[in-house]
Amino acid sequence: MKVAVAGCCHGALDKMYETLELLQRRHNVRPDLLLCCGDFQAVRNEADLRCMAVPAKYRHMQTFYRYYSGEKKAPVLTVFIGGNHEASNHLQELPYGGGVAPNIYYLGYAGVVRFRGVRIGGISGIFKSHDYRKGHFECPPYNQQTIRSAYHVRNIEVFKLKQLKRPIDIFMSHDWPRSIYHYGNKKQLLKMKSFFRQEVESNTLGSPAASELLQHLKPTYWFSAHLHVKFAAFMQHETSSKEELPKATKFLALDKCLPHRDFLQIIDVEHDPTAGDSLEYDAEWIAVLKATNNLVNVTQSSWNMPEKNGLHAKWDYSVTEEAIKEVLEELNHDLKIPCNFTLTAACYDPSKPQKNMEPVHTINPQTTEFCAQFGLTDINDRIQQAKEEGSGRGECEEEEEEEMDSTGSAEEPSEYNTDNSGLSSFNPDEIMLDEEGGDEDLSTCSVDPSPDHPAEFSTSFSDIRIMPDSMAVSSDDAMDSNTEELEKSGGSKQLEERSSTERPLKRIGGDENGDGGVKKIKRRNQAIYAAEGEEERD
């Protein structure tokens, strides 16, 4: 089947779907599925705009609200993950995933679904070490800290995904897995984005959590966005035994939506021709959710996931075939995801703007139904209960967040170094939405929605890239064999490990720069803001 993969959509749904329709008219190519790698911006109204972590000048209504209201319907089944420019209050209603509009499905904080037999997984948000070990405690109305931390990846989501044993066909993350740039044309990447050089050479660009997942899941395809540049890589994974067949991942990062040429890719994916056309639950994933339900945390407290370190009675939460069979029996072997989307907020009306609309914490009936069906904790209901009890656990604070001590063992080692400096990463919260310069404080944001604000982009077929099933990456793309580049990025040691397809990703356990590395990033940001023609970052 043909799968279209898009980078950062930034709310331009009309343009994205128009491009797909143009592809069909001109070349008789019609995708069966559309995947979006974050920054989807499912903004329903003015209150949603207030929950999107971007400066005021980028807070525009765009066109999602037309699909939310039913005025329009997505012409192709669309599955997306969250990024760092989202209406966080809307997506927070669906922590386990669900429909945000007819024919548009959000995967949740982390999720796995099936379509025509193809197994599709994803994790939403971006990695930030200082929030990684916290629970999902945020809720609207957000303050200047929680409006950002709401989209930061948490260790529990990574832990759940690492319990999966069955093969994954496609996986999506918003930010790139750290180190993936060593498996593609690094020289070309640095030519296009020269300000990445320091972080690439120090191996701090991207997400260490995504890198862990890449190494564990070994999906056939991995798609990302976030950095607004197209980049392909090919990673050959190490095998754990001689009997295990070698696995490889084809990685592709895509640019942001129009007018950029590389925001969309078409690939052919093998599928089950006997499978139906409906989006389906994944039985193993549901079983993992049930097995890890007691680990749900809705506090700001930092804690580590169970590990085989002598401190936990149980550390392996992967599920048995019997547990998967039980899920199938609960569903009477009908895995079809119900089309139970309902409106949970007023829809934007261009004729009646409401600039002072405030966001509220909402319990979505889709989540209520899902949790009741599988015996899971409704995260938002738990947060609401904590607020009502006045315990402060999971409460939405108006004052600045404070780091709390770990609820686990004080000496408990973590899979990721609990020292934040060891997880430092150039993974900016802000990727600006156009090419202009400047910076704005979020505290000065005002709402000025305009569905007609986006520039009139000329839609042409040059915006589409069609790739075969193999999604072949040339030797030029798969490695950077330039000796001078290798010397700059790692000296003689890099020269000894020249072949990228033979070098597995490794977890980075420490940061030699410490606090100094943070200062360097800040100075680099200043240079980026001042650079003409480059995206701004915060």
UniProtKB/TrEMBL annotation:
| Family to which this protein belongs | Belongs to the lariat debranching enzyme family.
Taxonomy of the source species: Eukaryota, Metazoa, Chordata, Craniata, Vertebrata
Q: Which GO terms describe its molecular function?
A: metal ion binding; RNA lariat debranching enzyme activity
Protein name, as recorded: DBR1 enzyme
Which keywords does the record carry? Hydrolase, Iron, Manganese, Metal-binding, mRNA processing, Nucleus, Zinc
Q: Offer a single GO CC term for the protein.
A: nucleus
Q: Where is this region: Disordered?
A: 386-538
Organism name: Regulus satrapa
Compartment(s): Nucleus
For this protein, the record's SUPFAM superfamilies field holds: Metallo-dependent phosphatases
Question: Where along the chain is composition biased (Basic and acidic residues)?
Answer: 386-395, 485-510
Q: Name one GO biological process term.
A: mRNA splicing, via spliceosome
Subcellular location, principal: nucleus
Identify the coding gene: Dbr1
Q: Which cofactor does it need?
A: Mn(2+); Fe(2+); Zn(2+)
| Record's compositionally biased regions (Acidic residues) | 396-405, 431-442
Q: Where is the composition biased (Polar residues)?
A: 415-427
